[in-house]
Amino acid sequence: MTDIAAAHYQPSTTRDALAELAPLLDALAGVAIRGEVPGPELLARVAQARPALAEVAKPPNQGEPYSRSILRADDEVEIMLARWRPGHGCAPHDHGGAGGFVIPIEGTFVERRFGWDGPRLVVAERAIRPEGVPIRIASADIHDMTAGSRGLTLHFYSPPASSMRVFDLERAEVLELVGNYGAWIPQGDHPHVPFASIAPKTQAKQMIWVAHTTHYRGGSAEFAVAADTMARELAVTHPDAEVIVSGLHHKADFLAELAGFVNSGRVLSELHLISHAGMYGPMFGSTDWPEQFSPHEWRAMTIPFATDGRAYFHACRTARWFAPFFADVFGVPAFGNYNYTTVSTHKDRFAWAGRQPTKQPDLYMIATPGKKSHGWGGSVRKYLGSAAEPMVQSVPAAALTERSYDRVANLYDRAYTDIKVRDAEWQWVSNRAASARAELGRPLKILEIGCGNGALLRELDDDGLIDFAVGVDSSAGMLGHARERSRDRARLRFLKVDGPELDVPDDHVDVVISFLSFRYLDWDPVMAQIRRVLASDGCGSSTWSNTRCACASSACSSGRPSRMREHDGSGRNSPGTWPR
Ligand SMILES: [Fe+2]
Q1: Who's near 127: CB < 8 A, 6+ residues apart?
Q2: Please, what is the Cα angle at 411 between 297 and 554, to 5 degrees?
Q3: pLDDT tens, 346-374?
Q4: How far is the CA of 46 from the centre of ligand 1 (A)?
Q5: Strand (E) positions, 84-215?
Q6: Is the dihedral of CA 508, 514, 520, 523 positive or negative?
């Protein structure tokens, strides 16, 4: 029955040895075909057959770690005998889908098993393989072996493989070897592919990330409690997900956490960001809080969302512009709050957390009307226990025709008829405008970008601060309200814009203001326009200089005249219809 490749074995002593070995090889082949490893009785016979096996084995060829004597190769099994060059090892390899076992006949071997770590092939296990103890080889195993001072091994593979892969660790490439090859990198050209192309695509670990900001404005301590509450509840409703809470001081912390997720192979099934709306960087002395990522910075970011990932932004008015923007940029549904967002001890309605809110065991971020969105009436409704408003979903590219404030113009108009509901911001802007007027000794020429319903310009006009002012906005609906409410104000004009280009002459205005909408703009072209239109004279003092660009926004943190004057004069507009 034994079908020996006789061509390899010319000496009569070898043929005699093979004949002597045949019954043992038959028995071992049967074990391999059954997917088992030999037991003590067969192994004892193998030990007795050691002289005959040594007789049959060829010496290794020059430059090769072991010789290959094929003792049998049929449809069911391949039997190979290997004489090892002392101290030499083979390359990591697989067995072409075959399984079986290897018996060290002479000498002790070091065997390494390999596994994939992303696109890297790494040592997963290292073992000493003593003489006479079979080494089981599974069909998916990748391993290598190194001989000691001597080495002889007997290999059984079933079914025989017509090819094998040898892994070149230095080049991170795999060679597909078809035919009679050993486990080393052969001479000549062979198909080779990068590890990255063949490494198994492991199932990424899904996680829910609850991030909250820590420093920006007041109330951030409550965010930490709300984040913990949210994480506990998400862990209950998503028992299979890993839920991670991160307190983030700065933008860099946010980015570092994301990089860690990417490097560890995690993907986000849900991103929750608990923060302030973050529109007023310079007012609070910073531009680097996580709330203050610019649209450009968001676009440059890598967020490893799962295919069904989604994002939730628990901050004021995030549903109006930011969530749709985020959905488009990252291609995931994004949820935001339409109105004011506050901390509550109840999830479904507002309930005041008391004077020591961080002592509360549970806090929730809920959307509800409030003073800043709806004036005192909103505040009263809130403290009467107004119901939490559901988050609003934006889906990617679903509302491209409706990305301005047109659809919210009526609501916004009602909410911000009195701009002073934004008390802190109003004080910040109006104080600087008053200082600027005093500095110049005359009323101001003002451009407001994103003027909405014109409420801010009317207030500044009421305070006698305006020579003339132009408000621009992309929302025809908002501008309609602005014009309607400013019919009797000859100093105010309102224009529609469709992009960063401003139809304003060069060196034409004293002050550019962007009160609540500056964070929504593409800053680079807008800043170029601001530099262009700002007048370059009459601004001697540092006080005046610092108020020239009254952007209540992180985009404008420099606010310095030197920066403003860097404009090179290209693309300058003619005076057009602007008031002089
Ligand atoms: Fe092997």
Answers
A1: 110, 111, 112, 113
A2: 25
A3: 888 887 777 777 778 888 988 887 666 56
A4: 19
A5: 99-106, 109-117, 120-129, 135-137, 143-147, 152-158, 163-168, 173-178, 192-194, 205-213
A6: positive
Looking at residue 272, its pLDDT comes to 96
Annotated domain spans of the chain: 7-198, 205-403, 414-553
Distance 138 CA to ligand 1 centre (A): 10
Q: Which two tokens stand for residue 567?
A: 């404009």
Please give the distance of CA 215 from its chain centroid, rounded to a whole number: 23
The secondary structure of 476-522, three-state, reads HHHHHHHHHHCCCCCCEEEEECCCCCCCCCCCCECEEEECCCHHHCC
Centroid of ligand 1 to alpha carbon of 166 (angstroms): 10
Q: What is the CATH number of domain 414-553?
A: 3.40.50.150
Compute, in angstroms, the gap from residue 164 CA to the centroid of ligand 1: 10
DSSP 487: T
Q: Tokens representing 236?
A: 């209950």
Dist. CA 93 → ligand 1 center (Å):
6
Q: Residue 11 Cα, ligand 1 centroid: separation in angstroms?
A: 28
User: How many Å lie between the centroid of ligand 1 and the Cα of residue 61?
Assistant: 18
- How much distance in Å is there from the Cα of 181 to the middle of ligand 1? 12
CA 360 to ligand 1 center in whole angstroms? 62
Ligand 1 centroid – CA 73 distance (Å) = 16
> Is 414-553 in the same CATH topology as 205-403?
yes
Looking at the DSSP bridge assignments, the partners of residue 367 are 341, 389
Superfamily of domain 7-198: Jelly Rolls (2.60.120.10)
Distance 65 CA to ligand 1 centre (A): 13
Closest by Cα among 67, 27, 66 to 44: 27
HSE-CB for 258 with a 13 A CA cutoff: 17
> What single DSSP character describes residue 496?
E
Which residues partner with 343 through β-bridges? Answer: 365
CA of 143 to the centre of ligand 1 (A): 6
155: CA distance to ligand 1 center in Å? 8
Ligand 1 centroid distance, CA of 6 (Å)? 24
CATH, domain range 205-403: 3.40.50
**Sorting pLDDT into bands at 50, 70 and 90, what band is 503?**
confident
Q: How far is the CA of 76 from the centre of ligand 1 (A)?
A: 18
Distance of alpha carbon 117 from alpha carbon 115, whole angstroms: 7
Q: Ligand 1 centroid to 126 CA: how many Å?
A: 14
CA 550 to chain centroid, in Å, comes to 34
Rounded Cα distance between 334 and 324, Å, is 7
pLDDT band at 559 (very low <50, low <70, confident <90, very high): very low
DSSP state of 266: E
| Proportion of the chain above pLDDT 70, given as a percent | 77
Distances (CA, A) of 43 to 49, 130, 277: 10, 13, 74
- For residue 104, whether the previous peptide bond is cis, meaning omega lies within 30 degrees of 0, is no
Cα 133 to its chain centre, rounded Å, is 48
195 CA from centroid of ligand 1 (Å)? 19
CA–centroid distance, residue 186 to ligand 1 (Å): 16
